[in-house]
User: Fold this.
Amino acid sequence: MLSRVAARFYWGARYLERAENTSRLVRVYDNLMLDLPPEAGVSWPLLVDIVGAGELFRSSTPKVTDHATLRFLLADPANPGSVLASLEQGRENFRTTRDLAPSEAWRSVNELCLYARKKVPQAVSQRRRQEVLGDIIEGVQQIRGLMADAMSHTEPYQFIRLGRNIERSDMTTRIIDAASVTLLAGRTELRRFDNTLWMAVLRSLSAYQMYRQSVRRRVHPDDVVAFLLKDPHFPRSFYRCLHQVESAAEDLPNHSEVVRTVARLRRLVSERDLKQDDAGSLHDFLDELQLELSNLHRQIASVWFLQDAGK
Amino acid sequence: MLSSFTEHEPIGMSLKITWKDYNARGSYDELVTPAGRPRAHARALAAYLGRLGPRQLVIRQHAAERAIVEMGITFTVYSEGQNIDRAWPFDIIPRTISAREWRLVEAGLIQRLTALNRFIDDIYHEQRIVTDGVFPREILESSTNFLPQCVGASPAHGAWAHICGSDLVRDDDGTIYVLEDNLRVPSGVSYMLENRIVTKQVFPELFRNHAILPVDDYPSQLFDTLASLSPRPLDYPEVVVLTPGIYNSAYFEHAYLAQSMGAELVEGGDLVVGDDDCVYMRTISGLSRVDVIYRRINDTFMDPEAFNPESLLGVPGLVRAWRAGNVAIANAPGSGVADDKLVYSFVPDIIRYYLSEEPLLPNVPTYACVREDDRRYVLDHLDNLVVKPVGESGGYGMLIGPAADKKTREKFHRLIRRNPRNYVAQPVLNLSTAPTVAAGSLQPRHVDLRPFSLHGERSFVTAGGLTRVALVEGSLVVNSSQGGGSKDTWIVDTESS
Assistant:
């Protein structure tokens, strides 16, 4: 398999995953803001910090309003993490690899992108938001399903898995981080909203039901963080994503270095005693995990990609 | 299902299409005779179309346009420094040709391609045709398409031009002429294949009742042809498609063909020539040997070491590896020497010289301005002629005499006198027409035809090809880059069904 093509599959999968994750975040936030009192400090601009685009946002937005923020997150072509820009870049990567991806998958990516161009700008206003973002999430899931089912699980597919799970694990750490910064920070007057907030966090990752089945007591912040970081079975837990990265890498040539890094990172998470963490140390730990993920990405690029062709 | 559709239409909308009102105005029409009756091989199609109301026509045309956008069939247009991916303009009414007539065309194309390959091989070796006085030495020596780097090379089966997309046109009297041979990097075959897929979706009921020759085996024929060129006798030769990249207007096709052949789609940067003069591609597990390159980039951009040192698209050392016989390149470098509008005027002689046969398909009469008599005639008759620069393709740099204004004709007058070798002229052919959807009814529009021929160990011609149609009333320009569209092409076998 060509190195250049491998990079495009990897990035194509990352961008589609990013479009889905950002859509999920916005949807859940939408609900959360209806439920929480203004003093909880949950606001649209905070979401920009969660996705790590705070600097770009403030430098490109003269007047921060809810409308400007949502436009930035959903439809701004200058924000490479916006739902629309992610889909466009996902499309571009899959367009240039259409000789290897099943043609139905390319067709779905293309259709989803055409749909998004028309509808995502409408999701900036409240009325159509839930519906349109729901469609985007479903669209990405459909593409993922098509690829899983119509594509041989050979090398191209393994690069898709790599990209998807690196992006996903990154997003999981960001979501936990955001929640812990807002509420764990010991503001006792907000404690009664803990339950609402952490349920929303779980929902944003479609994790609520699985959490409930796995942790059989009321929603508790420590349990949620542990579940999302350490659970070996839930597909969006950090640990599970790393497991997927490892198993994808094992099907690729020259994987030993990458697999070693992943194993180390998994140990780092599984051996962490989260009960000892306060808000500050948890934040530092999540920062460390994000740094490790970007190292892992660089390693993947240097082992398998000629250059970062997809980006 | 269809009849129930039409029954429920409001009365005012159910006007029937009648061939009486269809007027090809002196052009040969592919579907209807001058008397207004459908040609024998098109009778079933004409009857079917006659039963469709104008409303159904529009509904079907919209369905096709939607399918094209959803399938992502695009071509790229450069416009003001930007790339625009446009949906492929498509007309739903198929263009029909009888299988009996097609057999002759097919034989003619194979004859022509065989002779042209013999010609190229001879030109890069002994040049017997020049020594024997059939082909003038000065034309060869002044040809920019003759590449000295290729002299003495011996590609497999003596085949240089493996993939050829001839342009055929039909004149008023029904004669089919070869207008151009297109031996370099002809494109359009993927649109031929996609047009058939779209047409099947739009008119499924038609395919059940017609004996229409299939076209979908082209990718496997292409793969077999390419594999037959491999320098290593392997079960699975490594065949790659070399594209200039995503910004090329035919990128869609490059990807399409690679996908349907199961071949890697590579760019120049993916390939490297080793110290052993073999070609390798960069893969996730290191370098991997390549046997056959179906290249979709022009000769002079292929290898900065042999040709244009400025080229970023090419692979340094590629021609060296090819000359050493370590990799096959299709079409072979230098094949363009036979794809020159000046050489074109000699093709009938070339066929007689190498094959001792009379040409089965005629050339369009061509005046080569390099000959003094021809030049005088051309300069005196610019208002009746089409003037073409010999090295261009895609319809660029042409003068269509009857349509041009005085100033443009004067410009060409100067251009021809300054550089006569660069121009040939042909009479204006009144291209045949075929019914095309326009404003909810069927109207005659001019068409040409580009069949695709393969030449390796064996020869093969597609059943039909890509019909291009000038969508503007009266226009003769069919190029997609200049407002043309395309149609599905049916070779209809009325004898076997």
Notes: Confidence is low (pLDDT under 50) at residues 1-15, 78-82 of chain B. Chain B touches chain A through 23 residues (CB under 8 Å). The radius of gyration of chain B is 23 Å. Residues 185 and 206 of chain B are 34 Å apart (CA to CA).
